[in-house]
Write a structure and sequence with these properties.
The protein is α/β, with parallel strands linked by helices. 24% of the residues lie in helices and 24% in strands. It has 7 helices and 19 strands. Strands 1, 2, 5, 6, 7, 8 and 19 form a 7-stranded mixed β-sheet that branches. Helix 1 links the parallel strand 1 and strand 2. Helix 1 packs parallel to helix 7. The chain starts with a strand and ends in a 6-residue tail after the last helix. The structure holds flavin-adenine dinucleotide. Flavin-adenine dinucleotide binds next to helix 1, helix 2, helix 4 and helix 7.
Length: 338
């Protein structure tokens, strides 16, 4: 029986374990379960290599409340900072162990079922973020284009190609910046005409790229279909071709265009079924969160991007949520320190 099982070893999960250690819960009573082969798997997968990780991301002021806090730093420095936290607080993480279900054990706690084992815990913290299931467009993507359509930047080596980025948030802007640096010819398709969701750095960077002619922005453009480019003499078996992508737009102002790669930056989704299977109540499409990030199920907490709402989260916000969740747990029981 663990005191605390934390699901997800991203910024929220690791800081939750660090907070628990800092109030005196012994290392062997805390277990972090991570689906990926390393901590912060979503950051490794979705952040461009040379990205500057902003402490005030999305305008969320970086006033740190807990034991972890980042200032502006590189992607590598951020990962090293989390490596050190794992070492310093002696956090026990099981990698490559995805949690499939959490079942309440009335009067005792929870059973956590993974791909490999079954654990019991008094309290459970879900910190799995929203990037595990990136949003996908609502039109069909032909199977023959699978190698040319991406939902992150690290699943393919993109250099000196014609790339279309789809989206209008910070991620889309950062993807454009990264792709331009790698010598790609970049077009951005955004369904709106203003970029009101961007932070000022990403807004200015994107506008500068447009002014320099390094990114072509198709404002107010909506993609209706992707097709495989037909080259003369192409084999009939579409599954085996590696043709470019033809993008068709709803608006007549945007004629069809051909690209080597399409990169969607449309954000992530709440893993609703996973949360509902743990009996967590929902208010519309968002989980009900009470004081200290406790869900409608006593002893079951939800922190990080999952609790950040529609505006989205940040690393320091995830750290602060962990501190508040730990304080809530301490208020309900006796913590050794603090
Ligand atoms: C491109 C991009 C740029 C960003 N830039 C910044 C920035 O500059 N500054 C900033 O503060 N924030 C930035 N953010 C936001 C920031 O990355 C998130 O707010 C933060 O990572 C949220 O942390 P989290 O722990 O809640 O979730 P995540 O970082 O998504 O971590 C969740 C972890 O849970 C694991 N997991 C998922 N499902 C399971 C399962 N079933 N079982 C076990 N483990 C599971 C995942 O593998 C992952 O390791 C950016 C986001 C993106 C996409």
């Amino acid at each position: 029986m663990y005191e605390l099982i934390i699901i997800g070893a991203g910024p929220a999960g690791i800081s939750m374990a660090a907070e628990a250690r800092s109030v005196g819960i012994p290392s062997e009573q805390i277990l972090v379960l991570e689906k990926g082969p390393m901590h912060s798997w979503a950051i490794r997968k979705f952040y461009p290599a040379k990205k500057v990780v902003l402490a005030n991301y999305k305008g969320i002021e970086a006033v740190c409340k807990g034991v972890l806090c980042i200032s502006d730093m590189s992607k590598d420095e951020t990962l090293t900072y989390i490596d050190r936290a794992i070492e310093q607080y002696q956090i026990n993480v099981h990698y490559d162990e995805a949690v499939n279900a959490i079942r309440p054990l009335p009067g005792v706690g929870f059973v956590v079922e993974t791909s490999q084992a079954r654990y019991e815990t008094r309290r459970c913290v879900i910190a799995i973020g929203i990037l595990d299931k990136p949003n996908k467009p609502n039109y069909r993507i032909p199977a023959a284009l699978n190698k040319r359509v991406h939902y992150d930047l690290n699943s393919a080596e993109l250099q000196n190609r014609d790339c279309l980025v789809v989206g209008g948030g910070d991620t889309a802007s950062e993807y454009c910046q990264y792709l331009v640096e790698r010598g790609n010819r970049v077009t951005l398709s955004y369904r709106r005409t203003d970029f009101s969701r961007l932070n000022s750095i990403n807004y200015q960077s994107l506008m500068a790229l447009e002014q320099r002619g390094q990114v072509a922005i198709l404002r107010g453009s909506n993609i209706k279909e992707l097709q495989e480019e037909q080259t003369s003499g192409a084999p009939a078996d579409a599954q085996n071709t590696n043709n470019r992508v033809v993008v068709l737009f709803e608006e007549a102002a945007f004629p069809p265009r051909n690209f080597d790669h399409i990169i969607y930056a449309l954000g992530g989704t709440t893993p609703t079924n996973f949360l509902k299977s743990a009996d967590i109540s929902f208010d519309g499409d968002l989980p009900v969160i009470k004081e200290g990030y406790e869900t409608s199920v006593p002893g079951l907490y939800l922190i990080g991007d999952l609790s950040a709402g529609r505006k989205g989260g940040s690393i320091n916000l995830a750290f602060n949520m962990a501190q508040e969740a730990m304080r809530n747990i301490c208020n309900q029981c006796e913590c050794a320190s603090r």
